[in-house]
Amino acid sequence: MNLLIVGGAGYIGSHAVRLLLDAGHTVTVYDNLSRGHRQAVPDGMLVEGELSDRNTLVGVLKEKNIDAVMHFAAFALVNESVNDPALYYRNNVIAAVDLLDAMREANVKKIVFSSTTATYGEPEVIPIAETTLQQPINPYGFTKLVFEQALADYAAAYGFGYAALRYFNAAGARPDGTIGEDHDPETHLIPIVLQVALGQRKHITVFGDDYATPDGTCIRDYIHVDDLGAAHLAALERLESGKGICVNLGTGRGTSVREIIDACRDVTGHAIPEVMGERRAGDPPELVADASLAKQWLDWTPKYTDVRQIVETAWRWHQNHPNGYASN
Length: 328
Ligand code: UDP
Fold this sequence. Notes:
The protein is of the alpha/beta class. 38% of the residues lie in helices and 18% in strands. It has helices at residues 11-22, 54-63, 78-83, 85-106, 139-158, 189-197, 225-237, 257-268, 292-298, 307-320, and strands at residues 2-6, 26-31, 46-48, 68-71, 110-116, 161-167, 169-171, 204-207, 219-220, 222-224, 244-249, 255-256, 274-277, 286-287. The longest helix is centred in the N-terminal third of the chain and has 22 residues, at 85-106. Bound molecules: uridine-5'-diphosphate (UDP). Uridine-5'-diphosphate (UDP) binds at residues 169, 187-189, 192, 204-207, 218, 220, 257, 280, 283.
């Protein structure tokens, strides 16, 4: 297929691009590089542009004869969304609807969308199934939920076919160490812990150890970024006009902050000092996927079943690129 990967210069998008190319698809990346990296995109594939630039976007969709779009171009930081919701509603809702309308104009109606566990808020029942009531607790989660609804409405009215893939905690890097996670500022647990191992930070601050979990630290479902990419490939093959599906992408296994730090110690051989800090606002104690729908609908299971394997791939990237893409 001819695919337009919106946000393909970002962390998850750039990994998906590699897998789509490996599978024989033709890829064009559309990205404004506000958060992504030019070096993360293979040569000759990047079109720089805004989602709100209808002419450029429609031009690319038509000229490249695009069959389907993958949308990875949303902002994804909870704290930022609380402090600057306008940024989130503009980019994650308004610009994303601009994308759908450009697709309508170009008569491209298949889309795979990166949604999130943040649409569930703080669910009481773990593991989280897709039928769990979606009650976001921050603007980030709301913007993703609003766009899921837009997709459902566009499917019903205009015949869009979509998959909204609700990611749990994306982690790791392409195993060959060529691309990986590079955020500024970095807020995610695994890269921060590995930056401590590299000597770039003095310690990791654990955001609370008084949660109602076995070791008191928060539990998340860490999923390798290539497993996410593989699920996108599978979803692409199953898109049907006028229909949509929302699917959790997680491993079904929970790992605590403390277990992640220990895994990083094992993998890197560094002591990795830790400091106990306050809880971070808006952190649910436990988020773990019921991944059975993904298995059933996508015939997909994650290949990385041990967080150590995930950390190993991330460590390779961080060692090769201590300053991220600026190291190239
Ligand atoms: N965390 C932490 N210290 C840090 C960064 C994260 O203790 O410096 C914790 C955070 O409170 C959460 C988990 O690690 O429980 C995963 O956080 P991350 O930001 O990576 O992902 P999130 O689950 O927020 O999407």
